[in-house]
Heavy-metal chelation domain-containing protein (Clostridium ragsdalei P11), 264 residues
Amino acid sequence: MWEIYNNLISRIPENIKIKRCLMGVNWFLVESEGIGMAMRPLEVYGKVSIPEHIAGMKVCEIARYIKSWNNYEAALGLAAINSVINTESNVSKIYPGDINGQPNESSFISLKEEIIGKNVTVIGHFPRVESLRRICKLSILERKPDEGDYPDPACEYILPYQDYVFITGTTIINKTLPRLLELSKNANVILVGPSVPMTEMLFSYGVDVLAGTVIVEKERAWDVIQEGNPTKFFKRGARRVNISFEDYKNVQWRDEIQLSKKDI
């Protein structure tokens, strides 16, 4: 069950240091090579035990907190990992086009045509997700369910029969992601939100689309998030980026052609 977590940690070089850290109202931020985000957990179990001064520490030291059962610690670890993985240069390596040419829209909008009439489950009650009920057979799973939602244990009964499953990146923090991926093996799986590590490694565990966030204007996005606005950063310094497994395969195919041309 720890394989995903160990692989994420192993992707962090030993020599990269943290420049600054913010544990904000809605988001945790860590800056190293880039700025990594993770959603601030609503629930925390046990005493939080993190270093007093995080700036100057190695990213790999904080990244290990992703395996903590304390959600604050795990979120900090995920933000640290994302500060290395979710840079514009790294993410561009797994996408065949220009990520800045994408429409900066949520995966719910970009995949709207594909999910018409399908069985669709969304794990995590995203803003305005209820509007999808007009076009698909929608189930929403939530740890603290609103009216019309299912409690999260219902995943065992619902997910094996879905066509599309949208999973919030915060499931990495609360350790439910591995089981959710197992249950969703018959579905198209979209991992959604600013907490998502944009790494091709996740495709090997059954993720079909990485729908995450890349911060392209550091100071602008940092200031907006520091002020406490939960979503305005999408228009001020951050971009939604959707990368499918097919996109990644196209990159591999392109790179193989380039390598073969060098042999001519």
Residues 38 and 195 are 4 Å apart (CA to CA). The first strand starts at residue 20 and ends at 23. The domain at 95-222+230-262 is CATH 3.40.50.11590 (Rossmann fold). The mean pLDDT is 93.
